Structures are given as structure tokens and as C-alpha cells.
Predict the 3D structure of the following.
Amino acid sequence: MKDTLQKFFKIDRRWIFLLLAVTLIVPIVKPLGLPNKSISQATTRVYESLEKIPAGSFVLFSLDYDPSTRPELHPMAMALVRHAFSRNLRVGVVTYIAGSTGLIEELFAKVGKEYKKTDGTDYVILPYQPNILAVMTQMSSDLYGIYSKDRNGTDIAGMPVLKGVKSYKDMSLVVCVTGTAILDYWVAYVGDKYSVPVAGGVTAISQPGYGPYLQTNQLKGLIGGMKGAAEYESLIKQPGKGTSGIDALNLAHLLVLVLILTSNIILLFVKYF
Amino acid sequence: MALDTSIIAGGWLAAGLTIFLFSFLYRDNPFFKIAEHLYLGAGMGWLFQVSVNSVWIPKIWEPVSKGELLVIIPSVMGLLLLTQFIPKISWLSRYGFTFMMGYGSGLAIHAGLSTDFMSQIEGTIRPFSKMASMTPFDIFSSLLVAGGAICVLFYFFFSVEHKGHLKKVSNVGIYFLMIYFGAAFGNTVMARFSLLYGRFDDLFTFSGGSYFYATHIILAAMVVYFILHGLFAGKKDAAEEEAA
């Protein structure tokens, strides 16, 4: 009996890979519709920060993620932009990750059309800029000193979306969605320094590290990983890729729990019986 | 709705590269190598074009063409960094590094002290100034945060030998650290599953009729390859054994 159980620990790990693949693929092919019942306070705080801004205010989105973190961050960026457009906020987009430009275009082509928003009037996408700290510092005094044209080469001076916006003091909120440390820069070099409200959306890996900033209110709110994206989609009542991913995540986590429990029970059995 | 040919081709490429890279989980194979090399080459090419199109042309070439000659100074200082590779004149790179160090330190020291040091101390202490208006749970929470911070700091204080009460305090600090690491690891697992889900979701999209069943065809081809490779490799091994 013990020898049979011992074999469990020498199982070819490719069987576990296959099991995991099946667990994740099944809910994609046939969605189970498992509910996402808990909404964290940190996500709710982001929602409330956007909710209390008066219509027509200017919100800056720093969308700094590339295809490597797309499954986690793209759904939350999409939900955030949908929320901003539904509240008729003016939206500006900057990016400091060159690989995100295509994803930003994709996002605004889809969401802009949904809400009938016009480029230049309701939103503006500024081009990728290297040297993030220099750009952040320059934007504190004059936005046009560092961004004179949008990503298509059109002059941004005189664009209706930027009317009355010259520096951070004219922005109601900065929201950074990133899988890098760029959110730290927004908190340290912009939020704290110029008293601009900063909220964020990050990958699940980086989420625990931002707890201290949330506690001190240096971050107004935080969306973490695909779970956070699903929470935000629930708050704006527009289910998307984040919500559909919850099925797969729930099942995968169950699989991990079952594997951990099974192996520990077998280990105890082998050791003590 | 019929998709554009370039989108269908993109779907085939994405599905193929994803399956080729995942195939390594079963066994090393030439398709995985192709995808790996292609990824490295494409990554380098992408970085090069970003440097040219987003840095060199707009930040140096265009201003200089318009007569803004001041940008030549930082450009030359940047180029001086490359003298690191020529030992005889490598000292020139110090000028560029000096500027970067000064600029970086000037920005980072102030922000670091304010954001990560003073604000965090303030955030830990502040709740105690309004205890009268706090709920019992909030008071407990504030005490837990402050206690945890002190215990963890003690764990990292190495100038006093950890024994007696100090050892107990630093041991409690270890438990707080372990809770953090556990939460971080749990979140890491969730993040990895999310990424895997993202790839599978794309593969499912490319398996549709509008993409001419790209995922199914490529996956089937890979399975056939592994079966044939297994058969021929098996025969080859047997022949070699016989010859020996």
C-alpha cells in the first residue's frame, strides 16, 4: 500500500501540466458562470474615485503594459476606460512602455466606438516617451513642453479634450495600469510631490507590495490581477474578459488545493501508518 | 464575418508560436527552438526600431535638423558611455555616468525619503492619534500593523544579538514576513494562471472557422510529429543497439 502511495510522488509532472491545461480550457469552451461575489475594498476605492469626479473633468491614464501581461491588465484598462467614458470624463493616455501602443489602439478603437467618443474631442492618446522621470517632471509644469503632438502627429494644442489642461493641477485623477514599477513612480514623483490623486491597476504578483501605499492613502485605490478586473467589471455592471476568466481561475485554484491536500494526506499516511 | 487575410495570418502565427513554445513541456524539439530563436530575434529587432523611431529620430535627429543644437550635449554624453568598451579612453564614460548619477540621486533621494520613509512612518503612527473615534476592529488593525512593523524591523536589526526578549520579538517578525511571502506566492500562482488562461483563450479564438481552424491543425501536426519522431527515433536506437 505504502509503495503504491509513494508512486504518487514520482508521477510524471507532464500529467499535472495536462490536468491543468484541461482545467483551464474547459471553462473557455463551456463557461460555467461561477459568480464573483466578493469585491475588495481596494477595487471599490478606485471605482469611487472615478465616480465622484464631476463630468467633463480630465483624467490621465498611464497604460504601461505589453502583451506579456495582457490577460490580467487589458480587461481592467478596458473596464476603467468604459467607466470614464460612461461618466463623460475627458481622457488622456500616456505610456512609457513601447509595447503597449498597439494594445492602447485596440482598446480605444473598441471602447471609443461603444460610447461614440471622438479622438481629439473626448480622448487623446499621446505617443510613447522614453525616460519616464524626465517626462513626469516636465508634465508638472507644462504638459505641452514634452508632448506637442498626439501619437498620429497631430498638434495637441487647441484640442477640445485638453482645454484648460496644462499640468497635473488640472487633472482630477491619474490612473496607472502596469505590470512594472511605473505605478511607484506615479506615487512618488507625482502623487506625493504634486498632491495629485493616483490610483492603480497592477498584476496579481505586484499587488501585495502596494498595501502600504493604500493604507496611507498615497494610492486612492488598487485593482489587482484578473480577479481585480472581474471586480471592476462587476462594479460597472459590464462583464468582460476578467469576469469570464474567473471560472478558469476558480477551477485552477481548486486543482492546486486538491493537489496540495492530496499530497500532504498521502505524506502523512506514509509517514505515520 | 470574413476576416482580413493579415489577421488570419496573424492568428496562425500566434497559434503556431504558442503551441511550439508549449510543446517544450512535453519534450525538446526543433519547433520549440524555432519559436525561441524567433522570439529573441523579434525582441531585439523591436527594441532597435523603438530606439530609432522613438528616441533617435524625435529626440535627436529632428531637433538638430531644426537647429536646436543644445541636444548635441546630452547626446554626446550618452555616446561617451560607449567608451566603456575601449579601455584606453574608458575614463570618458565617467562624464556621462556622473550626470546620470547626479540627476538620478537628486530625484530619487528626496522622493524615496518622502514616499517610502516619512509617509510610511506617519501612516503607521497616525491612527493612534484618533483612537477615540475608532471602532475596536480598527484599533486592533492599527495595533497589528504597528506591532508587525516593529517586529519585522527588529528582525532586520543586526547590531544587537538576538537573544531573550529581542529574539522573541524578531521571531514574531519572521511570522509577519512569512504571511507576506505566503500572500505574495498565492498571488503569483494566480497571476501565472491568468496568463496561461489568456493564451488558451487566444488559442480557442484561433480554433474557430474564421481562422480556418489554425489551433486544431497546428496541434494535430505537432502530435503527428511527436508520434513519427518517437517511431523513427525508436527504430534508430534499436538499429544502433544491434550494430553495437
